[in-house]
Input
Amino acid sequence: MILAKSRGKLRSLKNYLGLALSVRATISDSKSDFHKEFPYVIPPIYRKLADELLVELHLLSHQKNFKNDAIFATGLKELFSKFTNGYKPKEHITKLFNAICNCNGFNPTEINSTSEQLVNKAKSFTKDDLTAFLSTQINEKKDRCYYSRINAIGIYKLIKEVPSFKEYKEEDLNKEISEIAESLGYQYSRVEKDISMYKSNIEKMRQALEIIALNLTTK
Output
């Protein structure tokens, strides 16, 4: 009886380890595909972004409740654009984005197109237009409302492009973001935290680039 239980535990342990190794191998495969498509050295200041984004997209691609919608596409494009500011050589920026997307099963052309369309529409959105757009998003999502920080950045980018919000104070803008987040089924506290961290990291990146530029000019 004791031997049977021990064998059962050993079998469970083997199954668990096999699953863990499988997940790890899948991430490893994504990274391998990435380096095949982008066989260039990534400058140190941008390396963390590339690695984190690659892993994040990999994990999202395995979430059954995740939906790659217009807000997500806008957030992904905005995040990548902001944190590759100053990247050299410039001709590698598009290649880097394409490789990060492709190795995880995301179509970079569709991401770019969807993001561009939403941003262009948002620039002429009224509040009623925004409400109608969000209603469409809610209907399309149904039960698929898995949250990621990229969604929060998409919401922030969307709000910043709507003309009627241009003159809003930070407090009023946060209220609008809160309403949008809750309408999409997201916890505002998480959205607020992720947007705050995003803005803080942009500022840190800007300062780091300024220091690098200053060091280069003094040499």
Remarks:
- DSSP finds nine helices and no strands in the chain.
- Residues 176 and 208 are 32 Å apart (CA to CA).
- The chain has two domains: 1-37, 41-218.
